[in-house]
Design a protein that fits this description.
The chain has about 400 residues and is of the alpha+beta class. The protein folds into three domains: about 130 residues, Substrate Binding Domain Of DNAk, Chain A, domain 1, CATH 2.60.34.20; about 40 residues, no CATH class; about 150 residues, Serine Threonine Protein Phosphatase 5, Tetratricopeptide repeat, CATH 1.25.40. Helices cover about 45% and strands about 15% of the residues. It has a five-stranded mixed β-sheet. Helix 11 runs antiparallel to helix 12 and helix 11 runs parallel beside helix 14. The longest helix has 18 residues.
Length: about 400
């Protein structure tokens, strides 16, 4: 880690961070480990002992272990965790070679922390400064994400892993057990890939390792809805969105934006695909809730600001590879812009939505005014008497 970031801030800010900033002391991290905080990462050098001058508040520490150089360097899957750091706090962790993870139990040893604090000046040359140049970007990506929301959504294990730790749903160690579950025997040859996949046990995340996202309602309509009502609730997802708010964010509806930001950070920085899937699900719910857009002005003004910063930070090929898949983002935002321009929508929200639409059209050349039905499959009427098998 180099000290270049300290040159990017003025002397007053540097002095304030030196006096008030938190310090992460990370002992024993193997050379070559890819380690980062918030939106920046580095490869750890031989002198690395941690990060200093960290602005107080919520941060995302992330790292990927490396194997022995004698085996050829390979970077492992990323692990991350949210930390809420207080002014002048010293957080101490030791690298666990067996687990290939950071162990923070040393931070609970007050005597050890005080010893580090007393010798901080000697440790200073081995501490890299917080990359202040990414601070503005980090704040813009997490301004609705509180420590409380991050703690609630983070796995009980405290670790967010790019690859889930999974175990079989059922322990089927014997052929008899497999037969009882109507699964094929392991000792028979597979005739197809499908048959081979069917032989694999169903997996589930190990308890305590799963992300605890809000549950998006499976049914978008209330119990007892008529077919006509089901159609209406499926076109306007307000009922489903209000149900999610009532269940998970009743006291602070804007925490839903914090959850959207948490999911985005998990994907963009933590490489957790589940974060992207949840981000998509929340976005579809928010953008397709016509009545809610009229009811929740502050929530939707906030949503536009959140999306503005998120879409400004993704790599260019991200849209081609993932977001543009099935035209998800453009069709979802097209619905939002249509509803935001409808009757009964607050004037300031309507104007903000129009500006955001113009910004996206200019930046990404997306056409939100195209008729999406032009892309729908053509229904071919067959002459009477001709059937298709």
């Amino acid at each position: 880690m180099a000290d270049s970031s300290s040159m990017d801030m003025d002397q007053d800010v540097a002095r304030r961070l030196f006096e008030e900033g938190a310090t992460l002391v990370l002992m024993g991290v193997p050379q070559g480990t890819e380690l980062g905080i918030d939106c920046k990462s580095w490869q750890v050098g031989p002198r690395f002992r941690g990060v200093k001058m960290i602005p107080p508040g919520l941060h995302f520490l992330h790292y990927s272990s490396v194997n022995s150089p004698s085996c050829g360097t390979e970077i492992g899957p990323k692990t991350g965790l949210f930390l809420n750091l207080k002014p002048r706090q010293i957080l101490l962790a030791n690298w666990d070679n067996k687990e290939e993870d950071l162990n923070f139990t040393a931070s609970q040893n007050e005597e050890e922390v005080n010893r580090i604090r007393a010798n901080l000046q000697d440790l200073d040359p081995f501490l890299g400064p917080y990359p202040y140049e990414v601070m503005r970007k980090w704040v813009s990506l997490t301004d609705h994400l509180s420590e409380e929301v991050a703690t609630k959504l983070q796995p009980l294990s405290g670790r967010i892993c790019a690859f889930s730790d999974v175990i079989p749903e059922l322990q089927l160690t014997h052929t008899k057990d497999r037969e009882e579950q109507n699964l094929p025997r392991n000792d028979t040859a597979c005739q197809s890939m499908r048959e081979g996949l069917d032989k694999l046990p169903r997996m589930k995340p190990r308890e305590g390792t799963e992300l605890r996202f809000s549950v998006i309602p499976e049914k978008m309509y209330p119990p007892g809805a008529t077919p006509a009502e089901i159609t209406q609730y499926s076109l306007d997802l307000t009922y489903a969105m209000e149900t999610l708010l009532e269940t998970h964010h009743k006291l602070r509806p804007l925490d839903l934006l914090g959850e959207l930001q948490f999911a985005f950070v998990c994907f963009i920085i933590g490489n957790v695909y589940e974060g992207f899937e949840h981000w998509k699900g929340l976005l579809a719910l928010l953008c397709r809730a016509e009545e809610a857009i009229r009811r929740h002005k502050e929530l939707y003004l906030g949503l536009i600001a959140v999306l503005y910063h998120q879409l400004g930070e993704v790599p260019p090929d991200f849209f081609v590879d993932i977001v543009s898949q099935d035209n998800f983002l453009t069709s979802t935002l097209q619905d939002f812009f249509q509803f935001a321009s409808g009757p009964g929508v607050d004037g300031s929200l309507r104007k903000r939505a129009e500006k955001f639409k113009a910004h996206l059209t200019k930046k990404f050349r997306w056409d939100f005014d195209a008729d999406m039905e032009d892309c729908a499959p053509v229904v071919v009427e067959l002459p009477e008497g001709i059937a298709m098998d």
